[in-house]
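Figure-free illustration: sequence to structure, shown twice.
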Amino acid sequence: MHRFIAKRLLMMIPIVIGVSLIIFVLIDLIPGDPGSSLLGAGARQEDIDMLNEELGHNRPLIQRYGLYMYNAIFRLDLGLSYATKRPVFTEVVNRLPVSLTVAFNAVLFSIVFGVPLGVLSAVKQNTLFDRFPTGFALLISSQPAFLIGLVLMLIFSLWLGLLPATGITSWRSYIMPMIAFGLPNGGRQLRFTRSSMLETIRQDYVRTAKGKGAPAQVVIWKHAMKNALLPVITLAGQSFGILIGGAVATETLFGLPGLGTFIVSGIQQKDVPVVTGGIMILAVLFSIVILLVDISYAFVDPRIRAKYSGSKA
């Protein structure tokens, strides 16, 4: 297990380097320059050229990338934001807790919402308890999170006045983003759980447990559920990694100072350190989340745990 974890951690190095190179090249291909974006349309050309020179934008791309990666790897310095003149790492650290909190709450909500209903749909296949939840799951998972967020804001903020519409003022500010993110993922979680449970409850060991007279609840939750959890854990981990920095539209809708809006504003201003540093940190976080998902398999499935324990590589 320890060697497996060490190998996965070492694999993050080429992943981060590859991601940073792709982002660096893509930002350079965007029309315009940082000086024009920061100073605005009415700025004089000599002022724009002077600012680009100060930021090092006039250097060749490979030279700028090499210098940036040298500072990032050997000095752990992700550079200064062109717009705020503050360290990118500090900016990311200040915004990351908001994104992590929203993502964790949304994934937790999707599991609480989707897994029990998915199990119920599988056990009660082709009945009303199956058709209604799966139909609702198809409907809700096809809706974008920002649309659900608009409906929630209309009901709970404008009509009822129960929850704040935008910003982070208290724990109540996280309720609507949690539901807006969690409902579509909960619909997908329901469908994954149902499909996995239907496959699992048809296995021989489940029929054997039923034949020995084990109670139905014990068969479902103790025997079948463990093997059906692997796709559920995979989807939850992927959703958490994506939600950390990928829900830009909904973060903007709720006025959340998260990592996604920070990176998008950097793209608009051609703020290379912000975009590159932010996405590098996202790549590391996503890799760690997927690693934790793989490790969790060992605690759910004894066969995988035995494979890790007996592995010599």
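We now fold a second protein in the same way, so the two outputs can be compared directly.
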Amino acid sequence: MATAPADSGRLGDTPDRDYSRKLQLFNAFAEPELRAAIDSLRLAPGTFVLDAGCGTGETLAWLAAAVAPDGLALGIDLSTSHLREARGLLPREIPLVQADLAHTPLTGASLDLVWSVNTIHHLHDPTAAVRALGTLLRPGGRIALGHSSLVPDMYFAWDARLERMATEAVHAYYRDRYGLSEQDLTAVRGLLGLLQSAGLSRVGVRTFVIERRAPLDAHTHAWLLDGIFRGTWGERLRPYLSPADHEELTLLCDPQQPGFALRRSDFHFLQTFTLAVGTTRAGR
């Protein structure tokens, strides 16, 4: 693995930052929909693919399987810890590179597909980064940008108000922590325009619905409890909620409480995963 620069991304990413566990939880939870998104690309054996922001490597493994036996799948990520986890998961023949996505050491015009999920909004200049990734593609190659939750998630089907308050509190927390505006936080919804502004053509988009209901499978339970209730919400939201709302949210998110949300028979969770795909122009 090459050494990456110690630059910080828009959301505080550096080579030393580690949220491996959260990535692993999400990939296990959303595996059916992520695999369906990969299948929708109809990758041919022999295709050369880059997972840009490969994280802990689960999706990279699925991409590698899709282009086997004669293709190549490689991954790039900024985080040392994420790549360490990916290296432990993946076969040695799958290359991993530590680098900033806007300044990769890869050879231009050498790939057929760049896949990047829940990553591009971490960068200071997403349009410039997509243009840079586009230079890695052969003529007619594609960039696939995926992002979850472009439409607000549904956690508490029985209490839309509390759910909305929690979502707004998360946005306020991120604005304060990273010095971002509301426009900065929501700009990721414009995946279609991002690909168009970066010079891609034949841009298309497809949204997959991630739907789970009680009784929950183990992966969904782990993601919602550890990734969301504890890892995203929790004590950090206290300053952004009224005392009554924070107490109610805490009771719903605590497995020791009788009203724990994930044990309710009417628990119904909805999330979206959107994949936007653009193609390089011939002769680029």
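Summary for the second example: Strands lie at 48-52, 72-77, 96-98, 111-117, 137-148, 201-213, 268-279.
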